[in-house]
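pls design
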């Protein structure tokens, strides 16, 4: 007997999606970025909380910059779990000093801090008792003086740009997920209620949708953010509360079409509750366009958060955010150090493009009319 092929819509959609090169590539890129977001502090050269180790003497250095770094251990120690270090960064109070050279005397480590030729000959003496007593002089040098390379250079505060980029991807991913979840919950709920019950309920919900849609998104987000206050979660909620209208309109239209089907009429005849009919019979057959919209909303949420951070009402310092990094360094574009703003800009562009490409691929895959 000939081998039978599965004709389910989900199987056909998956097969079509796998044939879309850019969609598959974007999917793996997003998975890769997600893993980076989760293990950012494991990968970042600067694993302090928010990658916030500042070295003002080496600010705005180009990619590949090398310097000797002296670490003076702190007398205060924090009892921090492995889980906390991996996911939230290390509570590091050690002092790091970029140096040009050093000499070792009997009880003193004499260092010459990095000065980029501006001031020559100023030295500083560090008593050896600042380091653990059980280490010899050579062991102190080997342990606490290292050649440090800044792969992407440093920002205007002397922080490692690569570490800030790795930690900053968390904001973009978090804002996308939370905003999309909020928009899906509100949009699907209100859209399904409006489409199923119709009448005055439909009129009231559509009025709310039209009023919300008539307000420019960025202005509405700014208003909600100012009402809730500046902060991390406030931005997430504000963005989510402005992205549900498109989901609601699409779900309403789908429900209006699907509720006329015979299986819905049969469910009513069997005495099923309205909630069961909507959740078990109507919504599962109405969500294909919503999946595509969710991918686009994910990209839009990243852009909105970046814009809010650029305006100073998004994620607040010292939290790493790609939008805030552009805000801090956009003036450097005309000062010959454009990479300080271009690198986070490329990060935003690549992530948004990946979600838009995967959205297009999902739209093509879920289009059952195509063969």
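designed seq:
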């Amino acid at each position: 007997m000939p081998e039978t092929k599965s004709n389910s819509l989900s199987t056909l959609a998956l097969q079509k999606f796998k044939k879309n090169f850019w969609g598959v590539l974007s999917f793996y890129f997003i998975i890769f970025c997600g893993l980076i977001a989760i293990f950012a502090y494991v990968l970042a050269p600067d694993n302090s909380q928010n990658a916030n180790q500042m070295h003002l003497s080496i600010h705005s250095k180009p990619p590949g910059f090398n310097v000797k770094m002296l670490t003076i251990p702190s007398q205060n120690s924090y009892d921090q779990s492995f889980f906390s270090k991996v996911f939230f960064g290390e509570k590091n109070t050690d002092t790091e000093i970029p140096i040009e050279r050093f000499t070792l005397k009997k009880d003193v480590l004499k260092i010459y801090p990095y000065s980029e030729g501006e001031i020559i000959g100023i030295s500083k003496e560090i008593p050896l008792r600042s380091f653990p007593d059980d280490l010899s002089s050579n062991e102190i040098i080997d342990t606490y003086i290292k050649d440090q390379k800044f792969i992407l250079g440093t920002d205007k505060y002397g922080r490692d740009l690569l570490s800030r980029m790795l930690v900053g991807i968390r904001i973009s991913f978090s804002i996308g997920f939370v905003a999309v979840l909020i928009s899906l919950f509100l949009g699907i709920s209100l859209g399904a209620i409006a489409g199923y019950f119709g009448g005055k309920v439909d009129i009231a919900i559509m009025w709310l949708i039209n009023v919300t849609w008539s307000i420019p998104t960025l202005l509405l987000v700014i208003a909600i953010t100012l009402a809730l206050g500046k902060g991390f979660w406030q931005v997430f909620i504000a963005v989510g509360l402005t992205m549900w209208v498109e989901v609601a309109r699409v779900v309403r239209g789908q429900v209006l079409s699907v509720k006329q089907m015979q299986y819905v009429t049969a469910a009513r005849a069997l005495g099923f509750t309205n909630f069961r009919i909507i959740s078990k019979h109507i919504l599962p057959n109405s969500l294909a366009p919503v999946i595509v919209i969710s991918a686009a909303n994910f990209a839009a949420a990243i852009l909105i958060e970046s814009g809010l951070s650029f305006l100073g009402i998004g994620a607040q310092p010292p939290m790493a955010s790609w939008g805030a990094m552009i805000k801090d360094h956009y003036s450097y574009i005309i000062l010959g150090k454009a990479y300080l703003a271009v690198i986070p800009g490329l990060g935003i562009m690549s992530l948004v493009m990946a979600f838009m490409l995967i959205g297009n691929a999902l739209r093509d895959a879920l289009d059952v009319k195509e063969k």
